[in-house]
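re: ur question from earlier - yeah i can do the single chain one, its not a big deal. heres the input i used so u can compare w yours
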Amino acid sequence: MRKTVLIFSVLILAGLFACDNGSKNKIPADVVSNPNSATGKESKDLPAIVFERDIYDFGKLIDGETAVYNFKFKNTGTADLLISQVNSSCGCTVPKFPKEPIPPGGEGYIKVSFDSSGRTGVQNKAVTVVSNCQPNQTVIRIKAMVLKP
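and the output i got, formated as tokens:
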């Protein structure tokens, strides 16, 4: 019994030391940016992305057609807008977005291509824009009615 307690104690100590990698916070504090202040009020130096329209309806498409729409947006904030990624809800929807910063007051486009091949009926697809705004995700949508030829 005594031997079991000793072995168990050694294993616990070994586990504790194994978990301590000597790791310290490797990200310096000046790199972390939280746009909200301690009072909960937002910082004034933030970009803001505003789309002219957040839904576009392609109407009726024939199965196999590819339709394209450019979603126009404006940075209405006071800092450069950086779009880090744009993701679609389906492989049939391909977005292209500007990689360069959009200055305050600047405009840009997110080009969304929809391939209707093999997708008959009502189609609703979401495209999520991830940026340095608050909130950091904005969803735009496309719709279409795909008909058989």
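The beta strands are 49-51, 55-62, 66-75, 83-88, 93-96, 107-115, 121-131, 137-147. not sure if urs matches, ping me
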